[in-house]
């Protein structure tokens, strides 16, 4: 197991915790859950979460990397690139090169780096980027090996192919999905847990018929896809104007309490 006294999380909505909310409506997510478990086995953990929804790799490099370097944590998690891949002009090779330029200074500064390869797209529309996502993931695996990083392979988490693990927007994990990712991160970091992310879901019912499914698709397009496209057209992001939820390295009991 890693000796971790401080942990900084970098990235976008996945690491911010979108889709997994506390009772007050703020984001929890896999990183808070992982930090909580780290603190249980190494009390006194200091934790910062700089991730903000909508961020692309270049923004993580420009806005979050300098802060992470100044904090000099023992462990940094890095999950980014999903928002880039949704853009028609995305080039997996160029994107991976930019991603690596975040990893290099973190490793040079002495931080352990836990990087994430992305999910296999499960919904019909997202399957259009499957080839690009696979190519990007292949590059990230090579980066993890080249720089001796911890690697959390989300693509191989077949349990996450179940649509019940996702929010209605089909882009963000539901609470149980975040819980399973946190368990996988613990497994990679050697942090003991009492649950297994592979635990099967209950048997699913037959699901909606074809007509109901198409109605659900139309509702999704109206409520989620259309606003996303409008933001892209005007160059806006869902994270514009937002600040990090935990910008400083603080004990879990300080600032925002990350409790169950």
Percent range for β-strand residues: 5-15%
Pick out the low-confidence regions: 255-260
N-to-C terminal Cα separation, in Å?
23 Å
Rg, nearest Å: 18 Å
What's the total number of strands?
6
Helix content: 40-55%
CATH class: Alpha Beta
What is the ordering of alpha helices and beta strands? EHHEHEHHEHEHHE
Q: Tell me the number of structural domains.
A: 1
Secondary structure elements and their pairing?
Blueprint: E1 6-11, H1 13-16, H2 29-41, E2 46-49, H3 57-71, E3 75-79, H4 82-85, H5 92-108, E4 112-117, H6 130-146, E5 150-153, H7 175-189, H8 210-234, E6 246-251
Parallel strand pairs: 1-2, 1-3, 3-4, 4-5
Antiparallel strand pairs: 2-6
Helix pairs in contact: 2-7, 3-5, 5-6
Provide a descriptive summary of the structure in words.
This protein has 260 residues and is an alpha/beta fold. It has one domain: Rossmann fold (3-Layer(aba) Sandwich). It has helices spanning 13-16, 29-41, 57-71, 82-85, 92-108, 130-146, 175-189, 210-234, and strands at residues 6-11, 46-49, 75-79, 112-117, 150-153, 246-251. A six-stranded mixed sheet has the order 5-4-3-1-2-6, sandwiched between helices. Helix 3 packs parallel to helix 5 (92-108). The longest helix is centred in the last third of the chain and has 25 residues, at 210-234. It is globular and about 55 Å long. The two termini are 23 Å apart.
């Amino acid at each position: 197991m890693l000796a971790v006294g401080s942990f900084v999380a970098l990235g976008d909505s996945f690491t911010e915790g979108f889709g997994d909310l506390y009772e007050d409506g703020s984001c929890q997510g896999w990183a808070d859950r992982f930090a909580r478990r780290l603190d249980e086995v190494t009390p006194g953990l200091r934790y910062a979460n700089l991730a903000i929804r909508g961020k692309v790799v270049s923004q993580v490099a420009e806005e979050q990397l300098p802060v992470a370097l100044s904090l000099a944590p023992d462990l940094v998690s890095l999950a980014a690139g999903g928002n880039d891949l949704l853009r028609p002009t995305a080039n997996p090779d160029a994107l991976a090169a930019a991603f690596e330029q975040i990893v290099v200074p973190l490793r040079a500064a002495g931080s352990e780096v836990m990087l994430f390869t992305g999910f296999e797209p499960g919904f019909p529309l997202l399957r259009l980027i499957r080839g690009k996502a696979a190519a990007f993931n292949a590059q990230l695996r090579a980066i993890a090996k080249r720089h001796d990083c911890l690697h959390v392979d989300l693509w191989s988490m077949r349990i996450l192919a179940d649509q019940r693990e996702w929010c209605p927007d089909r882009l963000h994990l539901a609470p149980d999905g975040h819980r399973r990712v946190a368990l996988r991160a613990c497994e990679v970091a050697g942090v003991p847990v009492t649950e297994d992310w592979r635990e099967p879901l209950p048997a699913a019912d037959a699901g909606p018929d074809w007509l109901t499914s198409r109605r659900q698709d139309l509702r999704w397009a109206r409520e989620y896809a259309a606003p996303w496209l409008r933001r892209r057209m005007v160059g806006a992001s869902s994270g514009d104007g937002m600040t990090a939820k935990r910008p400083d390295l603080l004990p879990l009991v300080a600032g925002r309490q990350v409790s169950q």
